[in-house]
């Protein structure tokens, strides 16, 4: 199926892998997707926090018992192509499923880190910290893409979809957030290029808006630029931050219609 002929993502029996599924937006997405996906769909929930993952899985079991879930505690920053491939093969074996058992493969790249926002760009001086940041936020999603779509090829499933959770920071500079901005911009271009290379994969970079999550706590505490830090503090005190559910409410109809241009960067406020 060509990417321009997208079907309702929630109408197909799906193998869905969500990274960063232990809290915040990733947890909300996993739960909402589970509620909407058809019976016999499978959700693989991946993150570093086992307690958070189990909480997500328990909530899915309570609200959407028609789908199966599998919790995978994993630190994506330290993975290789070989380890990720072994992980996916092991999941298929353990769950007694194969890619051909599904009509759709859905990969959600939500896991990400803010990085050090306490320094201006000319103050950043740790190569090891930079390399660790790129490993987590660029290398790991790229390798996971490679492995995931190696198994879920065009001839195996009817539809393939990848969602990259991005940010306004990928297109607009935020003072003292240079590493975060650069990482988000690079990720957007990776997925935009992916869409250009393979029209059989539906690719969306979704910017969920300013959500009231742990990242906002860090932003209010650690941001070096005074004006930006005060902006975040003001958004919290004025109640203008979004909830995860508000953002997902905007995303779900977009995925149901599935008519967005593959590779597009779409913001909560533009939908």
UniProtKB/TrEMBL annotation:
<dbReference type="GO" id="GO:0006729">
    <property type="term" value="P:tetrahydrobiopterin biosynthetic process"/>
</dbReference>
<dbReference type="InterPro" id="IPR036291">
    <property type="entry name" value="NAD(P)-bd_dom_sf"/>
</dbReference>
<dbReference type="Pfam" id="PF00106">
    <property type="entry name" value="adh_short"/>
</dbReference>
<keyword id="KW-0521">NADP</keyword>
<dbReference type="InterPro" id="IPR002347">
    <property type="entry name" value="SDR_fam"/>
</dbReference>
<dbReference type="GO" id="GO:0004757">
    <property type="term" value="F:sepiapterin reductase (NADP+) activity"/>
</dbReference>
<dbReference type="GO" id="GO:0005737">
    <property type="term" value="C:cytoplasm"/>
</dbReference>
<keyword id="KW-0963">Cytoplasm</keyword>
<keyword id="KW-0560">Oxidoreductase</keyword>
<comment type="similarity">
    <text>Belongs to the sepiapterin reductase family.</text>
</comment>
<dbReference type="InterPro" id="IPR051721">
    <property type="entry name" value="Biopterin_syn/organic_redct"/>
</dbReference>
<comment type="subunit">
    <text>Homodimer.</text>
</comment>
<dbReference type="InterPro" id="IPR006393">
    <property type="entry name" value="Sepiapterin_red"/>
</dbReference>
<protein>
    <recommendedName>
        <fullName>Sepiapterin reductase</fullName>
        <ecNumber>1.1.1.153</ecNumber>
    </recommendedName>
</protein>
């Amino acid at each position: 199926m060509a990417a321009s002929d997208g079907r309702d993502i929630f109408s197909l029996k799906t193998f869905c892998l969500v990274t960063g599924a232990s809290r915040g937006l990733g947890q909300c997405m996993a739960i909402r997707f589970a509620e909407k996906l058809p019976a016999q769909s499978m959700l693989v929930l991946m993150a570093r926090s086992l307690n958070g993952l189990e909480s997500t899985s328990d909530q899915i079991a309570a609200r959407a018992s028609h789908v199966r879930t599998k919790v995978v505690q994993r630190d994506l920053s330290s993975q290789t192509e070989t380890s990720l491939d072994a992980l996916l093969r092991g999941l298929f074996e353990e769950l007694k499923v194969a890619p051909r058992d599904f009509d759709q493969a859905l990969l959600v790249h939500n896991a990400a880190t803010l990085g050090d926002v306490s320094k201006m760009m000319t103050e950043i001086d740790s190569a090891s910290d930079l390399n660790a940041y790129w490993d987590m936020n660029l290398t790991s999603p790229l390798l996971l893409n490679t492995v995931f779509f190696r198994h879920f090829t065009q001839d195996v499933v009817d539809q393939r979809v990848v969602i990259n959770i991005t940010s306004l920071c990928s297109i607009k500079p935020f003072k003292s957030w240079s590493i975060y901005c650069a990482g988000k911009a690079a990720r957007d271009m990776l997925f935009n290029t992916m869409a250009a290379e393979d029209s059989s994969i539906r690719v969306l970079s979704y910017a969920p808006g300013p959500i009231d999550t742990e990242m906002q706590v860090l932003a209010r505490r650690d941001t070096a630029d005074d004006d930006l830090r005060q902006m975040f503090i003001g958004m919290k005190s004025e109640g203008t931050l979004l909830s995860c559910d508000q953002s997902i409410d905007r995303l779900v109809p977009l995925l149901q219609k599935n008519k967005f241009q593959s590779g597009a960067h779409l913001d909560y406020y533009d939908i």
